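Good morning C.,

I know you're traveling, so I'll keep this short. The sequence:
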Amino acid sequence: MSAITGSEVLADRERLLRAIPLGGGLHGIITTDRADGVLYVLSRYEDLEWWLPKSKSPESAADNSRKLDIARIKGKQLRSEAKIVLCRTIYGEDSLKNGSIKNIFDKLVLWLNWLHDQGINSQAQVTPMVAAQYVQHVHRLTSPSKPGKPLGSSTKRHQLRSVELCWHRLRDTLSAFDHPWPESSAYALSGHKPSYKSKTDIIPDDVIRPLFQSAESLLGRADELLGHRDALDKYQPRSTSKASENKEKKPLSKNSWLEFGVGYLETSATRPPRWVLTNYSHHHRHPSP
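The tokens, ready to paste straight into the viewer:
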């Protein structure tokens, strides 16, 4: 175990990231860790086993939970593509915990080994038709812990997201492929339904209509309103008392650019008229207990 500095790690990572689109020079530092205050290299790009740092795992986690065994992926080219995806994910998602990265890796293994079993040796050969076949394959899978029971929508979503992740991470490489499902997404194809419900009531049409009309009217007068605002900012009162100052400003309000006068303009030049807000409040008034 040899010590290394943080600047050396960053320089090597930058070099490796620049090399990936070119397809050469794919070697360098992937992960590091510390022991007794010393920074050292944990895994290198050229290794077939990448180890994630202990600092991003719970203390109770087994050491094996930090290992990414790239040899699990069938086919030399598919393993190379997996390294690009994982490298960019680890570098670009620094906040990800080891459990999240391990889950991404496991779903990546399933996708790439399925490709290999179809006789596809590189993701450059992936078409929307191939991706659609994988969607059908995922829908046919059953739970390993409950034989015969289909996978849950959340599990399906994670498996399909691995395809989207590869599409995103490989776009500037020789292994690039078209978007797997141009008219859809992993979220939609999985059949996943959100478990949350919006807490905000929908604004009724008879309230939202005047709100939009008022907003559109104010936007149409934006240059005029901003000009008056700037004039107020530049106005230098001659009086020292607040009451006298307001009297000096009063002629400005008589220009009728806003029906509510100077004070209204100073607080908000985009607020809808008070009758609209009153109407909205009336619709959402809570009943008395």
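Safe travels,
E.
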